[in-house]
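Dataset card, provenance and construction

Sequences and ligand SMILES were collected as paired inputs. For each pair, a complete structure of the chain with the small molecule in place was predicted and serialized as structure tokens. The example below shows a pair involving flavin mononucleotide. Curators did not alter the output after generation; any descriptive sentences attached to a record were derived from the structure itself.
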Amino acid sequence: MSKKIMIVCGSPRKQGNTNRIVGWVADAARGAGAEVEVIDAAHLDYRTNGCIGCMGCQKSEEYRCVVDDEAAPIIARMPEADAVVLASPVYWHGPTAQLKMLADRMFSLIKVSSFPFPTPFEKTTLALIGTGAGPMDDGLDLLEEVFKRTATGLQLPFESLLVPLTPEDPEDLEGNAEVRERAAAFGRKLAGA
Ligand SMILES: Cc1cc2nc3c(=O)[nH]c(=O)nc-3n(C[C@H](O)[C@H](O)[C@H](O)COP(=O)(O)O)c2cc1C
């Protein structure tokens, strides 16, 4: 059966480095037979500025954020995917605010009242695509650590594709065969090929 991959991209730049790499990952995964959905998390219609800590998700039986906007059903569908891929450029040594707006609300996918936290996940891998203009230790390492620990909290396996030294002009990434190949290999891996 074909794998389902949900890619949630938090770069505000639609034609930027991160979205280009996301496109290459998605193309390769589709080429390997996966069903891929790409979500532009930076341009969703949000009702709140991220998680507001209302704990409504913890009081309800459902694994769903109670803030009723475009992000809530996307997060609730994550457990249906074989891979949920969060994608972000490094902004000041962490993810973009745009990705955090959505990612923090993944708190609705655990119940913290007992340990290990009950979750609806049965088959999902959490993955990260990260880009940064600097070398790995200028924040990509920290970005990876954030989501590695998120995966631990959600009790999910974790994979990552980290691309340091991205060009100032994303057009210049187009001819980078090494990054293209790494992105394609990552897409094929997520697709299980
Ligand atoms: C506000 C801001 C903060 C940034 N902080 C970092 C950083 O801490 N480390 C780094 O390597 N690059 C940093 N960058 C560079 C971006 O991560 C890099 O250019 C990335 O590839 C941009 O992705 P995009 O084209 O998808 O926007 C920063 C860029 C911006 C705009």
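Derived descriptions for this record:
The helical segments are 17-31, 56-59, 71-77, 97-103, 140-154, 177-190.
The chain has one domain: 4-190.
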